[in-house]
Predict the 3D structure of the following.
Amino acid sequence: MKKITLFLLGCFLITACKNDKAPAPTSGGVNCDVAKISTAYVFAAIQANCTSRNCHPGGNSPTVADFSTPDKLKAYINTKRAIFELRVTSAQADMPQSQQLPPLSQGMKDSIACWIAHGLPDQ
């Protein structure tokens, strides 16, 4: 009797399962309340996507923004925060503009935005 009951229970559980897709997770992004984003992390991303491609390397660069050092990156953000956020971290962000480079991921944009919101912490 136990075997029959277990068999029927197993059949019931198998037929109760559906092949529906689970709902997509909500896009919560990076939680700035708990995220610990450092200058070193952001600067490494800026180097990989902005300075190493000769777009914002400093020196004789034709661009206004010089991101060649963490201090210069911070100085630019402190004086032109709205422009930086619009071009780098907003939904309309268009950097990097090179056809060969993919846009920054939403996670990277969120991380940079958290770093800015926390006051550009080094640690």
